[in-house]
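Re: that chain you flagged

S.,

Sorry for the slow reply, it's been a week of failed gels. I finally had a moment to sit down with the sequence you sent. For the record, here it is as I used it:
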Amino acid sequence: ILLPLVYILFLSFCKNDSYGGIIYQVTLSNYFSIFDLTYMKILVKSCLIALITTIICICISYPFALILRERSENFRNLMTKLVMIPFLTNSLIRTYGWITLLRKNGVINSGLIGAGIIRNPLNLMYNNLGIIIGMSYTLLPFMILPVCSAVFKIDNCLIEAARDLGAKQSQIFKNIIIPETLSGVFNGSLMVFIPAIGYFFISDILGGGKVMIIGNLIKNQFLTARNWPFGSAISIFLIVITFFLVKIYQKLGGKLDDLGGM
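Prediction finished late last night. Pasting the structure tokens below so you have them in one place:
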């Protein structure tokens, strides 16, 4: 685990020649280049896409978990298994499957046009929308599992006591359910946000290569521009952001054991 990271860290302080070779001279220019306006725009866009993806996953996972909480244990286990089934298929193949649904002559547009809802096909892919749809679909299980785990652990006695004292459903949700499940939501948010920044293959497939996120930038530096030192510097910078988010999680009272226990 550590050896490749140490090598990437070493390369990030080297120089790149005109032919894609590596000059073993210590420099900080690669890190200074990250703060160029062009690259900072890519970073901001990547974080914005990751944030929207995280919010969408929360909006889907929270109601899903609350509904499952009222069901039997057998039904919960069944739905949990159905959530996990997509993991049995390669994520790249599943992402290609979305092309059939989202393209202009795909299932969704054909259905809407056939129903008379729209006249012209919608642009559902090769843009930011397509990337967000793909990210949300791919990373949704990482939000559902921790949120469900937190929701299922809520003590029914607390809710029953609140009802006996005359609390309304909105008050129960605000004062009991949200505080008791906040850690699960934050766990899921961390597990969705961080991968969403670097999932370059979704941007390549559903974004058509037209939308650049930080993951694409790193890939292009290694494979296309052949600038390994700069690609390494961006990779280290992304790792630092990851550690920063984990530290925020710990400051808010979270434990790394919670992430590992899911």
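What I noticed first: Strands lie at 15-16, 22-23.

Talk soon,
D.
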